[in-house]
Structure formats: structure tokens, C-alpha cells
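pls read this stuff:
=====
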Amino acid sequence: MGQLDPATNRAGALAQLEARSWDLVVIGGGISGAGVAQQAARQGWTVLLIEQRDFAWGTSSRSSKLVHGGLRYLKEGDVKTTWHSVRERERLLREAPELIAPQSFLFANCAGRKPGRWLFQLGLVIYDLMARQRSQRWADLATTRTLVPGLAPPGLRGALLFQDAKTDDARLVWRVLSEARRDGATVLNYLTALELQLDAGRVSGLSVQDVTNGRQYRLRAKAVVNASGAWADRLRGAVGGKPMLRPLRGSHLVVPFWRLPVAQAVSLMHPRDGRPVFLYPWEGATLIGTTDLDHQQELDLEASITPAEVAYLLEAVNDQFPAILLKVLDISACYAGVRPVVDDGTGSASKAARDHVVLDESGLVTLAGGKLTTFRLMAQDALALAAKHVGKPFVRDNGALFSPVGELNPRWSPAQRHRLAARYGYRAGELCAGATDAQLQTIPGTDTLWLELVLAVRYEAVLHLDDLLLRRTRLGILLPRGGLDHLARIRTDCEPYLDWDAAQWEAEVRRYRALIAAHYQTP
């Protein structure tokens, strides 16, 4: 297998775009598109995946980072979504334990607050039955205060404990893309779909454009899967599809762990409107989320948190931890993503259904909605529809998603081996073999290794500085000022592997500074 898209491989892949006849072109480089490409390549189909920005640029790097079963959907009566999510969560925990980590949650039970202990506990019993486990239990007041020091919402009587899981969402996308590439798929970022080509009313290909230089290509394809998330309705117009998506914005805060030290995730209902909010330890920081609002802004503009959302999330935290008095100045970063939720006519954004939808419209198969956790099932549903256009069978594959990681250098610490396995999967041994002691040190204030930056620019299709600092690594949201204080070392380590002269490096830094200030800092 070739390297995962350094510049030379990108040029070679672009040169072959028009020469090949593709069984399937996948539009969208988030978790949904990555899952489709991986599942299709495993069937032996010729697969091309294209992404108009960077891989995981949209929702798949801006999620809540939770691989969860959708406990809250039980409340809405959406048992099917919860069932699928719980089963897929358990699969991911088994297959990629280094990347998908169990996370214990605590829900404070308070006098006079809904949903109340017994109703919530009933939901947890059903949740556990779906997972065929027993994780939920009751913690009395003393135990609750021991588990989460400082937790003191009004009327606290104890807490319910249960299990879910968490991940690095952007790295999960990369692991799936790596598997797709191993099975023969071609994956390209910064390649945008311009127009579908129709033959006798059916999709026969599409025209695409290289964002980096404006060059256009005409591709032949037996089927196209539209996994472009919040942008999905745009392509559907060419085949007569009517808009079906309701873009919802979810925003998050990141604060230093020392300012809000929680080993235990805390789940709560917001005191103002009863919406679920959570906070939990993630990558050496504490993550707080999320909001759920109709997103009215232009989709091509990067989403940003609003002052009202900041205040809303701080209000929820300070209700649970009144002595901490978290303030705006404590926030080291924030981010916002747009969820491509299928519009079911529900008035409340929070109650809109989260199940996925697949549509076949003249050979354009659109995959929309769904959850990070259920990407495998979503991909298989889309490919079952695409198969008749491709003319090849599609057999639902219940095999493992990820190839075995293999042995890593025994001289490395368990923490180092675990982290490298999580990020690079079966390629970890190959990519990390020459790592120096200095590269295996963590970047101050994070769990990130310096090595991760070098591997990203060498092997992971980094075309811009924000690709490196916001998605290949997460320094842009883990460190104050987006990690700019480490820029000198980053340049020293990475510049030898980037085809950037001094002027382009400075241009990238200006671009990144503006991006962080506008979209990843408090407004």
C-alpha cells in the first residue's frame, strides 16, 4: 500500500482520475463518507472519495467526541436509534480499544428536578440490556461527592452512574480512511464536486475541481454516494430531490483540566430548559457541550459559537459546580459544528430525530443524518442501494472494521504505545519505527506527542496549517491561542517535509491566526 497521500501520491492520484472508470465516487470526507469508502473497497469495488475541504473538516472534527448509545433518544421513544448505537458502540470498543475509550458518566439526582431517579434508572436498565451488560448503579451523597469533588447542584441527593465511550473523532475518520486505502480506495481532499453528469436521466459521472489550482476533471462513475453532510441537499437538486435537511449547530467549550478537574464525566439537564449537557475529561483538557440550535448562516462559512451559547454552557457548569465559578476568561478554546439532521417537522431542535436516511435518486445515493457511532451501518445501507447501479453484489460485512495493530517497540512506555496505536492503527509500527526520544515527548499542556506532527505532514495529506493543528492533531482546540506559542518548534520539526517556501509558511500562519481568532476563541 502507498503512503496516505503525501504530495507526490496526490499528484499521481489526480493524474489517474479521468483515466479510470469508477464503480463508486463518494462525495464527503467525514465519518459517513469514510465508512462508505471503506465498506465498498472491502467488496472489491473501485472507489474514489473526494472532500471539498479537508478530511473531517465538517461535523466529524467538531462533534462531542462521544461514541455513545443515544440514551436521550429513549426519552423521545426512538428505540431503534438507541439500539443500533449501543450495539455499534460495543463493537467499536472491542475492535479499537486503543482509540475508543470507555467513559464513566455520573448524573446528579436532585430534589425537584426531572427526570427523577427512578425514571432515569429505568432508562439506564434498558440501555444496559441493549449492551448486554450491567454498568448502571446508584451512588449515595457521600460517594457522589467523592467521585466528583465540588459537584453541588441545588438539592443534590446522590447520583446515577453509567457507561458510555469517547474518542478523537478526527482520528477515527483517519483510521477508517486508512483501512479504505488499504483495500484499494483512492481518497483526495481539497477536491470539490461541481456538477453531476446524467445519461438518460441517470447519474453517469461528475465534474470535479482541484481547489488548490482550479483544474477541473470529468469523472466516469457507475454510482455516486452523496455523504456531504450538511451540504447534501445541494447535489440532490440535479436529480429533482427536494431539500430534506435541517442544519443544527452544536457548540462546545474547552477549558484547562486544572480549572475544571473531572475524572468522571458529568451528565446533566440544563436548569433553564431541561436540555442534556455534559462535561468530561478529553485529551488532557475538559470538554463542555453541547448546544442544539438551528444554524441559519451560510454553510460554506465556518461555524462559530455565539456569546449566548457561551453563556448557556457556562450557566450549566456553574449550576453543577457553584464554587468553581467558571468564567469566559477560563475558556481556552471553543468550536462549533453543523449537524446534518433530517427535518422531520419537529418544532424543537433538540427533539429532531437523529436516525439516518438513505435515498436513491437516479444513481445518486444520498446518506444523511445519523450519528458518529453508527457510521458502519449507515454505510452499508447506502451501498445496498448503490449496488444495483454498480452492477456488482454488495454483501453486508460483519467483519472487523480495523486491521490488527501489531507489536510496537517494547522500549516505548505503555502510554506511548497506546497513543500511537490509537492514531495509526495497523500502520503504527511502520510509521513510528524511527521515532526519537525527543519526538516521543508530549507537547506541554496536552497528551499529544511531537512525533504526531511530523507523521502528519509526511503521510497525511496536510495542505494547510489548520489541517495539521485542528484535525491531524488537536492542538488548535487543546491549547490557548490555538497552539501558536509552539509555532517555532512546529516549524523546525515540520518544515523539512512541507513543500512550502518562507512566504507560504508566513501566509499559512496568517491564515491560521485569523481562523483561530474568528472561530475557535470566545466571541
